[in-house]
Amino acid sequence: MTSYAAAGVDIEAGERAVELMKEKVARATRPEVVTEASGFAGLFDASALLRYRRPLLASSTDGVGTKVMIAQALGKHDTIGIDLVGMVVDDLVVCGAEPLFMTDYVACGKVVPERVAEIVGGVAEGCRLAGCALVGGETAEHPGAMDPDEYDLAGAATGVVEADRLLGPHRVREGDVVLGLASSGVHSNGYSLVRHVVRTAELSLSAELPELSRTLGEELLEPTRIYSLDCLELARTVDVHAYAHITGGGIANNLSRSLPDHLNAVLDRSSWTPPPIFEVLAGHGKVPQAEMDNTFNLGVGFCAVVAPDAVDTALAALAARNLPTWVMGEIVPGEGVASYR
Q1: Could you tell me if 230 and 143 lie in one domain?
Q2: Which SUPFAM superfamilies does this one have (predicted)?
Q3: Fewest beta carbons within 10 Å, which of 52, 118, 197, 278?
Q4: Is 31 helix (H, G, I), strand (E, B) or coil?
């Protein structure tokens, strides 16, 4: 007899996954979330925006890319959702926006309730770390389009910033200082190159390389650091002019997006030492420096452009939040690009 289950879609498994994730999702909330939702849409009390004089809504969407293939290969699915949140909410924080709420989308070849619950549980944990609510999402089973053990995830978030507190190129001034905020590792960008290096160098994810303190797979699966609460607090504490989220394209390319067209950022490569994982990738993959620069964050997950007299306070504030930060460059006359001296 023909049925939806015979076609490869297990509705009961989907319902079981929802039950398993409920407790974790419930921790990713804010007071503005309306719990009496219809079950089809998440509700957020917009009267919270009344405290703003001119609220600007910010939105962002992203995925995790092929890092999910590392999670699948290792059979560890509870942190990849943190990566998703980091990729989405920290784009909002670049303009100074506070993340308010997020939704996620998980597509898989076969719904395994425990696995889906782990994935979404990671999303919920990421939202908790970011201070935003996970108000809803969707899990879709795609038999035939994806193998049973394959999945992908994406998400979208909304934030708010006061119009006169908007950060960006319009605030950047000559003489400003560029701070580097440490990444937790590779984060979630460049994994197509990562996997190419692993494959061509015949490395095993279980390999214990001398440069690393854990297996290669564990290092590559380290979750993306989420900067939203740190950066929001820093903007409340000192005169921050702009932020840059260092994602695909590397440090210089992403920082250039936060510069006006008459100023440059000059970065001092000697001001920090990239984590060992980047040495591993460059060495085993014979990846030239220019390619490393244009692909990876090299240990810098975020940049902050601050006024010169705010540097000491900014460094102390982020150190107090256990976020390693250092002076890595300055703003000079130019044509809107970042480069290394």
Answers
A1: no
A2: PurM C-terminal domain-like (SSF56042), PurM N-terminal domain-like (SSF55326)
A3: 52
A4: coil
Question: What's the Rg (C-alpha) of the chain?
Answer: 21
Are both 158 and 230 inside the same structural domain?
Answer: no
DSSP one-letter code for 146? B
Q: What is the dihedral of CA 228, 232, 238, 243, to 10 degrees?
A: 50
The verdict on 29 and 95 lying in the same domain is yes
Sheet containing strand 151-162, strands side by side: 55-63, 151-162, 98-108, 133-141
Nearest 5°: phi and psi at 278? -75, -35
User: What is the residue-level pLDDT of the chain in tens, covering all 341 positions?
Assistant: 555 565 566 667 767 767 766 777 777 788 889 887 667 888 899 999 999 999 999 999 999 999 999 999 999 999 999 999 999 999 999 999 999 999 999 999 999 999 999 999 999 999 999 999 999 999 999 999 999 999 999 999 999 999 999 999 999 999 999 999 999 999 999 999 999 999 999 999 999 999 999 999 999 999 999 999 999 999 999 999 999 999 999 999 999 999 999 999 999 999 999 999 999 999 999 999 999 999 999 999 999 999 999 999 999 999 999 999 999 999 999 999 999 98
Using DSSP, state whether 302 is helix, strand or coil.
strand
Task: Quote the crossing angle between the two packed helices 191-200 and 276-285, to the nearest 10°.
Answer: 50
Instruction: Report the number of distinct structural domains present in the chain.
Output: 2
Task: Note whether residue 56 is domain-resident.
Answer: yes
Q: How many Å apart are CA 274 and CA 269, to the nearest integer?
A: 10
Phi, psi of 300 (to 5 degrees): -115, 105
| Ramachandran angles phi, psi of 23, nearest 5° | -65, -40
What is the secondary structure of 56-81 as a DSSP string? Answer: EEEEEEEE-TTHHHHHHHHT--SSHH
Range of the domain at 92: 11-39+52-162
162, 197, 219: which is the final residue of a domain?
A: 162
Calpha distance 322→205 (Å, rounded)? 29
On whether the CB atoms of residues 240 and 308 are closer than 8 A, the answer is no
With respect to residue 19, please indicate whether it lies within any of the assigned structural domains. yes
